[in-house]
Amino acid sequence: MKKSLLLITSLVCIGLNAQVNWQNFAGGPTTGFWDMDTMNGKLYVSDGLVNEFDGNNWTVLSDYNNSLNTPNKSKSCVKNLNGNLYCGAKDFNTTGEGDVHYYNGTSWTLFQNTDFPYNGSYKIRSFCNYNSDIYMSGNFEVPNNTSFRNIAKWNGTDWVTVGRNFISNFSPTEITDMESFQGNLFITDKSNVWKFNGSTWDSIFNPLNVPFVFPMSGTVNDMIIFNNELYLSGMFYLDANNMGIPLIKYNGSSFSPVARNIGGVQTILITSDYESIGKMGIAGGKLVFVAKKSADQNTYLVSYDGANVTEETQLAVSGDWIAAGSEYTTYTRLFEYNNTLIIGGNFQKIGGLSQPGLAHVPTASVIGLKSEKLKTSVNVFPNPSNDNIQFTFTSTEKPTLIIYNQLGQVVRNIEQINSNEKIEHELKTGIYFYELRFKEFSSKGKLVVSR
User: What is the CATH architecture assignment of 8-13+374-449?
Assistant: First the structure.
């Protein structure tokens, strides 16, 4: 009796090799970028100063010598809360103390009674509305209670502590981000995520130690809300089957790895795809993020629509201007303004072009750039497999076959295979994932081994 063969067809999307024409802002900031936000239809960029863009022209709203009666030097994010633009500033005219100001579109107001002490650092990284109160985080000592650091709440008169001192062995650095999500305040310090319900704090992750106590976090690079879920980039270990995951999401009760559709199979995004995922943003209705690709160590702009991951364009080549493979860390803000995607940071190049610090491009010219697709069928059989497999494909190119286990570890790497070649895999019973890596694209799918 002949054994029946189960065929799995993978549809492979080959991207267009179009050049993305990144531009700088004529007359706008180019170096020292910190943050950006919008208010009343205008774009505001912090680069040591605060700059306003009305769609045509730039205006500087703060200076170094206070001749404009504005914050001397912004060392912070800028954030639109309740129709006012908030930022932190360092006072260079006196003793370097820190202040918080807000801008209502016409003038600046000092938003406190007591200055923040300056003991070698004063940085505001994030502002957030939570339970009708304004919170701020960063690297600072709280006024009037300098034993507490890095997060404070406005009580109507001054900035006060919020019941926890975020400086310990597990939380040694500044609080880099905050998000208000489903009745809780979430904060991150680059290594962990903490949840605040208005009265108590809970640590979401455990330290990455042996023995393993799940869930664990190695690094936390960014947080953002997309499609009513909280997304986290970094390196996470959720359970024994989901270790070393670079992108996860939280639905209000539990964390799960981000998966995408490959040939009809939901496949977890793992480090064999992208070794590191950095900053995230929302553009064109999609989650966009900066990622270092494992295969070539280059930096890419990637989008995710909730089901599919698309590698939109290359931002940098490994070793382009800093330590090879570190380029992804220099693109620190992804933002959309008037249907324009803006990327800010301390990068020197973007897409091969010398546009340092701040660059922009029409969103539609980069997000969805690969909407024109060439579909190439790749068949693998038998699947389930016993001791051998065969791939059929129409390309004359000889691809590399890579097989991963469920932890994302490479268990087989075979170069230059031929179509219809019988391959002895010698794998144990279990579920695996294969990748046929061609020069211009890859085909991925699920492989079941049953002995």
Answer: Sandwich (2.60)
Residue 443 burial class via C-beta count within 10 angstroms: exposed 0-12, middle 13-18, buried 19 and up: buried
Kindly indicate the confidence band of residue 167, based on its pLDDT and cuts at 50, 70 and 90: low
Alpha helix (H) ranges present in 262-369? none
| CATH of the structural domain 35-365, one choice from 3.90.230.10, 2.130.10.10, 3.40.50.80, 3.40.50.2300 | 2.130.10.10
Residue 195 CA: distances (Å) to CA of 139, 189, 198, 202, 305: 19, 12, 9, 5, 26
Closest by CA position to 162, among listed 146, 147, 151: 151
Give the best-scoring range by mean pLDDT among 7-21, 188-202, 426-440.
188-202
Q: Do residues 388 and 423 lie in contact, with contact meaning Cβ atoms separated by under 8 Å?
A: yes
Give the burial string for 153-180 (b: 16+ CB within 10 Å, else e): bbeeeebbbbebebbeeebeebbbbbbe
- Which whole number is the average pLDDT over 319-343? 91
Which residue type, as a one-letter code, is found at position 19?
Q
DSSP class of 416: S
- Ramachandran sector of residue 439 (left: φ over 0; alpha: ψ -120 to 50; beta: rest): alpha
pLDDT tens for each residue of 296-312: 999 999 999 888 888 89
Alpha carbon of residue 238 to chain centroid: 18
Nearest to 217 by CA among 195, 193, 241: 193
Domain ranges of the chain: 8-13+374-449, 35-365
Cβ–Cβ < 8 Å for 116, 134:
no
| pLDDT tens, position by position, 147-160 | 788 899 998 888 89
117, HSE (Cβ side, Cα atoms, 13 Å): 10
- Strands 400-404, 375-381: pairing kind: unpaired
Whether the pTM exceeds 0.70: the reply is yes
Task: Quote the tokens at residue 418.
Answer: 């031929």
pLDDT for 184-208, tens place per residue? 999 998 889 999 999 999 999 988 8
- In this structure, what token pair is assigned to residue 308? 């599919």
- Number of helical H runs and strand E runs in the chain: 0, 38
Please say whether the dihedral angle defined by the alpha carbons of residues 70, 71, 76 and 81, taken in this order, is positive or negative. negative
